[in-house]
TrEMBL record:
Gene3D superfamilies: 3.30.70.100, Rhodanese-like domain. InterPro entries: Rhodanese-like_dom (IPR001763), Rhodanese-like_dom_sf (IPR036873), Rhodanese_C (IPR022111), TrhO (IPR020936), TRHO_N (IPR040503). It comes from the Bacteria. Coiled coil: none annotated. The keyword Ribosomal protein does not apply. This is Putative rhodanese-related sulfurtransferase. It holds the Pfam family UPF0176_N. Residues 109-204 form the Rhodanese domain. The lineage of its organism: Bacteria, Bacillati, Actinomycetota, Actinomycetes, Mycobacteriales. One of its GO terms (molecular function) is transferase activity. Keywords: Oxidoreductase, Transferase, tRNA processing.
Length: 277
């Protein structure tokens, strides 16, 4: 943790890095030279020699600060002891599919195949794979109860493809699913980011990609479908606004005019309540 923190500080990088006994995951922003230096230095640590990095347009200003933390889990599913890793990575996870391999599997298995969104339900409001199942989860912590609820038992003998932003959440989600009886689990290698780089908006992805920095969302092309709509007036929008109730702050899809309206700039639950009288 100290090594990574010092390295980022030295290079003027901002962002968020989580380190656990299972590995490391994070996003940093800064000048191209600084980011390149970061990848080079990080790979010098032998276990990280083959680490994958994904690149996207942005800067240090997309992040409010630098945060480097050591945690029990890289992704907070609430199951630190269920996850086991060896030199090859996670043990007992899903079969990795490259974007082309995903298309091949869809061709072979047709309607039998199910897409299962591995993100928070909110993220899928603005973009998801066509006909994907979106579990009712507010945070990753809700996933285990959702998987054990019985709602998805009919998928347990079907080919299920999980996906998430960059492929990391699925690394943890897929063994949790397999341990709970899902027989044929796949995961999209490199996540939506890599799929979008390869197929843009001409494949099976629809809409915008929610991202965890100031950009909030990104599109793969000008052809991106607009899936989101304002919770108040149904105007198409991909912009999340924090509910103006300080005690809530829920990210809520809102059009520019509702977001600018003092009476309306609240989530569905808070709008019209005592909080804004
Ligand atoms: Zn509106
Ligand atoms: Zn609210």
């Amino acid at each position: 943790m100290l090594w990574q923190k010092t390295l980022c500080e030295m290079l003027g990088l901002k962002g968020r890095i989580i380190i656990s006994k299972h590995g490391i995951n994070g996003t940093v922003g800064g000048s191209l030279t600084a980011c390149k230096m970061y990848t080079r230095r990080t790979r010098e640590f032998a276990p990280f020699k083959n680490m994958e990095f994904k690149w996207s347009q942005g800067s240090a200003d997309d992040f409010p600060r630098l945060s480097v933390k050591a945690r029990d889990e890289i992704v907070a599913f609430g199951a630190p002891d269920e996850i086991k890793v060896d030199e090859q990575g996670i043990i007992g996870g899903g079969v990795h599919l490259k974007p082309e391999e995903l298309h091949k599997l869809v061709e072979e298995r047709g309607d039998e195949l199910v897409f299962f969104d591995g993100r928070n339900a909110m993220e899928a409001e603005i973009g998801k794979f066509k006909d994907a199942i979106v579990p009712d989860v507010t945070t990753t912590h809700d996933f285990i109860a959702e998987l054990e609820s019985g709602k998805y038992d009919h998928l347990k003998d079907k080919p299920v493809v999980t996906y998430c932003t960059g492929g990391i959440r699925c690394e943890v989600l897929t063994p949790l699913m397999k341990n709970r009886g899902f027989q044929e689990v796949y995961q999209l290698d490199g996540g939506i980011v890599r799929y979008g780089e390869r197929f843009g908006d001409s494949g099976l992805w629809e809409g915008s990609l929610y991202v965890f920095d100031r950009r909030m969302h990104m599109e793969f092309s000008d052809e991106a479908k607009q899936l989101g709509q304002c919770v108040h007036c149904e105007t198409p929008t991909n912009d999340f606004v924090n509910c103006h109730n300080e005690a809530c702050r829920k990210q809520t899809l809102m059009c520019a005019s509702c977001a600018a309206d003092e009476k309306k700039a609240y989530c569905e639950r808070c709008v019209g309540t005592a909080a804004n009288q």
